[in-house]
Inverse folding.
């Protein structure tokens, strides 16, 4: 995390191919299973058009707080390699008006993937820490989703069917 650039970064190695990790970002049914800061926060996918120029809108149910809405547009999609999208927080959230940018990079390392999440333009007080913690929590859930898919080879995994 580099404060001088208003950036939060999360790096992790996952025990799955870039194609399988990418799939978890590319399908609404999978995104809804992991893209929350913790298991007690729910994600309802309201819109999901995974293509360059397509948009998304998520509703986060945070216990004890008002529903938080996030929307954005996919700017770059390079299968199994890179995803870039805007991340816009809507009112009434305390960080409403944050219009940031997320870059996800998938790099093959042996049979696994090095995942880099770089969230830029986090200019409001507390935004870097909040988003870094949120991404770290989400990645923990992503790792569990990928692990479950790898540990149940007898069943068809939702991460299967992707071109490597």
């Amino acid at each position: 995390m580099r404060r001088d650039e208003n950036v939060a970064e999360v790096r992790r190695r996952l025990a799955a191919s870039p194609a399988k990790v990418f799939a978890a970002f590319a399908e609404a049914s999978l995104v809804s299973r992991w893209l929350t800061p913790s298991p007690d926060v729910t994600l309802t996918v309201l819109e999901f058009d995974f293509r360059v120029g397509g948009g998304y809108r998520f509703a986060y149910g945070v216990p004890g707080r008002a529903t938080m809405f996030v929307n954005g547009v996919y700017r770059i999609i390079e299968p199994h390699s890179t995803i870039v999208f805007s991340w816009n927080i809507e009112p009434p959230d305390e960080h409403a008006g944050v219009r940031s940018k997320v870059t996800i990079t998938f790099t093959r390392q042996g049979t696994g993937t090095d995942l880099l999440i770089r969230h830029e333009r986090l200019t409001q007080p507390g935004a870097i820490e909040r988003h870094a913690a949120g991404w770290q929590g989400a990645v923990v859930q992503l790792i569990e989703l990928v692990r479950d898919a790898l540990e149940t080879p007898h069943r068809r995994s939702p991460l299967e069917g992707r071109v490597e």
